Hints:
The complex is a heterodimer.
Chain A: E1 3-9, E2 12-18, H1 24-32, E3 50-53, E4 56-59, E5 72-74, H2 84-91, H3 101-114, H4 120-126, H5 137-153
Parallel strand pairs in A: 1-5
Antiparallel strand pairs in A: 1-2, 3-4, 3-5
Helix pairs in contact in A: 2-5
Chain B: H1 2-9, H2 22-26, E1 42-48, E2 54-60, H3 62-65, E3 70-74, H4 76-82, E4 87-88, E5 95-96, E6 102-103, E7 109-115, H5 118-125, E8 129-134, E9 175-183, H6 186-192, E10 195-203, E11 215-220, E12 225-229, H7 234-245, E13 252-255, H8 272-282, E14 286-289, H9 292-295, E15 300-301, E16 303-312, E17 318-328, H10 336-343, E18 355-363, E19 370-371, H11 378-396, H12 400-407, H13 426-436, E20 450-462, E21 469-476, E22 481-485, H14 494-506, E23 513-516, H15 534-560, H16 568-576, E24 582-589, E25 609-621, E26 627-637, H17 644-663, E27 694-699, H18 722-734, H19 745-753
Parallel strand pairs in B: 1-14, 12-13, 15-19, 17-18, 22-23, 26-27
Antiparallel strand pairs in B: 1-7, 2-6, 2-8, 3-7, 4-5, 9-18, 10-16, 11-12, 11-14, 16-17, 20-25, 21-22, 21-24, 25-26
Helix pairs in contact in B: 4-8, 11-18, 14-15, 15-16
Amino acid sequence: MRRAIQFRLNGESVEAQVAPHETLVEVLREEFGLFGARESCGQGLCGCCTVLVNGTAVSGCLYLAALAQGAHVQTVEGGTELDAVQEAFIERAAFQCGFCTPGFVLMTRQLLDEIPDPSEDDIRHYLSGNLCRCAAYPEIIEAVKLAAVKRRTK
Amino acid sequence: MKRATQAAETPQVGRSVPRLESWLKVTGRAEYVHNLRLPGMLYGKIFRSTVAHGRIKRIDVSAARAVAGVHSVVTAAEVKTVVPDPYYGPAFHDQPVLAVDKVRYVGEPVAVVLASDPHVAEEAVHLISAEYEELPAVYDEVEAMTSKAIVHDALRPAGTFPDLKHLKGKTNTNIALDFRLRRGDAAKAMKGAERVFEHRFRTQQVMHTPLEPLVSVAESTDSSITIHTASQSPSFVRIEIARLLGWPENRVRVRVPFLGGGFGAKLYIKLEALVAVLSLLVHRPVKISLTMEEQFFTITKHASTFRIKSGVTRDGRVVARDCEVWWNGGAYADIGPRVTQKSGFTAPGPYDIQDVSIDSYALYTNLPPAGALRGFGIPQLVWAYESHTDMIARELGIDPVEFRRRNLLREGRPQATGTVMRDAAIEKVLERTASLLDWDKPFERGTGVVRRGRGIAIGFKACISNTTSLAAVSVNADGSCTVYTSTVDMGQGSDTAMAQIAGEVLQIPTEAVTVVHSDTDVTPFDMATLGSRSLFHSGNAVKLAAEDARDQLAKLKRELGLPAETPVADVFRKKYGMRAGSVTGVGNFIPPYTPPDENGQTENATPFWMVGATGVELEVDTETGRVRITRLINVADVGTPINPRIVETQLSGGAIMQLGFTLFEKMLFDGEGQLRNASLAEYKIPGLLDLPGEIVNEAVVAEQRSGPFGAKGVGETATFGVSPAVANAIHDAIGVRLTELPMNPEAVYSAFKR
């Protein structure tokens, strides 16, 4: 039933035994003790389970782990220092309970890779698939703008 | 002044310190119960009722038990072997750990499957079947007053609250509290009034939707149990679990890390009794994590109906007000009776009205239970009284802000309970909102397809009373500081605020303070993190504890003959000859309170008042009914902010959440009490695209003299005025009055076309 898959996880080569029905977020949690991507709505609608697969954001609660074979999977735990996005989220107070924050951080990185200087409208639309029940949205918009500046000046 | 000197040296209070847990949250490393796995742990999945009201004839779990990998299947029969009388609740002992004999709403837990693989448990749940003898059901709160369908055979008040005692053992009723307030003679004053207005308003059932769904883990030995739970009320959980098990409190340990949102969903007992019983039955750790769907079957916000009647003089003075409010509590009372009373007594609004009558009813129905949701009932009331206020003003041809001015409850005047208003900046909040809206300037409403309108609303809330908070503050041998409190940080920033308060007293940087998360073996009692009470109550307790520690240090210095400015580390080194020791201060805070008499009158109804107003400018598309908020103004009296930045995020976040309840969120039930939209696919919460064009948040300059450094709670304040301000603005734009929430495009369009 279970089969071995190999992939890169935050830059390191890893292997895991996965069942066909297991999702990426389950494998990250159960096999690697990574909790930054977390299941909330279970339908790919809230963005809390966001992880990057080969640089593209996916809903980890729907993405089957077996499909990660050979891919590069990045989670919010990657990296040893805070990046411009994380710094900006702290400086602009862009979270409250923090449960949705890793998803927003990863999605913002992808946004800034694609659009280095996004307009407010770009930000609202690009991040509209990530929900924050504490509604730190105005602060998130400000944080994304600040992160864009930080990235350009770094 | 002593405080000014301190503040100059170490201005911890009033500083926008970034949250202490910022790094943990942006790196995904913050601790939530969601993350917890214990060796040998079993996962529980719940089998739920498919009928709204019925006697359980038979539960067949044999096929589920036979599934490979299933550890066990548990029903009420097994629960009773651990807890013979398995009913819990803060106001009534009415809710069973698993359904006993009867089910009372669709989605009620009936059985649990345990397995070490949650997928196996879930699969087995689908193989359970149950047969019910269906009973007549009631869903509407007003019908529940007289319905022949009776949800509970006999009422079982918990005994904690004196005003529920008269309901003990009562049969043939769905009324779980009938709160009554009489001030003067409203009926007589109404007869003498020149104009009388009467309206009826409704609110819908909605859900908190914390993104971390409810989750609890229990592990037990023969003589102790530890519950790790996403709870806003660890102290209550300990007391209630100890009561259910018949154990002393010190054998029940409740731990709470960070919460992924709470909003009132994670109060009292939710999954804690169930995981505790399961763990004791199977002698292994048990975890239950609800799905987003299951949260809709666990706790919700009261739907309500409010009939409000006012007698008014020709020149616009409200002389009498008669309020009748029905709260749809669902199948179990939860904290509904407290919502009914504690919010009920503010039903006439922040107005100076001589003669007032209030009847507020908590009702059982066959719907998922309702509890507190960011406002403890207040948003439902403000929705009605501020829509009503606007309707009267417009009918009389008086400007709505001017009409409010004429009737405002001012400092020093008695509120409906008779309690005199103190430190409630009602007038200032109203005036500032009007000024930010440029209320006195002309406003362009448009004549085309898209019309524009603006509206204003103001509400107030009494903080729930009487409640207790304790705290301890330790100063360690190196001068660093540890705060022990059972206040739960669910995103509101309480850790940071408590650290700022301790830092201010001890004159050390906030960043040098650590706040220990709730652990009932370690942190002292606290009533709960709810109703915007924690900053005031726990904040005062932390302040007292820090002052106690500071005084102990000062005494130590005197004893050792050291000058006052000696660094703490040197004091301990001198005392112990090495780096050792610590001092611990304790704080015990309970504000004064006088219970109301039989007419709801008391001279001391609340330790503090919260005041919030909302200003709205919006556009209505008359062809689609779609409403777009272009400006949202939130003004509040929060006393003196401890952390201005966090205060602002609380105001803005609360208002946006309430916008969801105002414009689109609604739990949709069919005729059989079956919920039809229990998922984020069909139940939409506000996202980035729902954000108003502009948001302005402002805390007026104010001071809560009894609060820690002048502060008071803020978590709920910005929710109060949102719904009626939007309704008032829609009326201003298109001349149509909506009296039911939510005001979605369908409702707006239908009303406009009528």
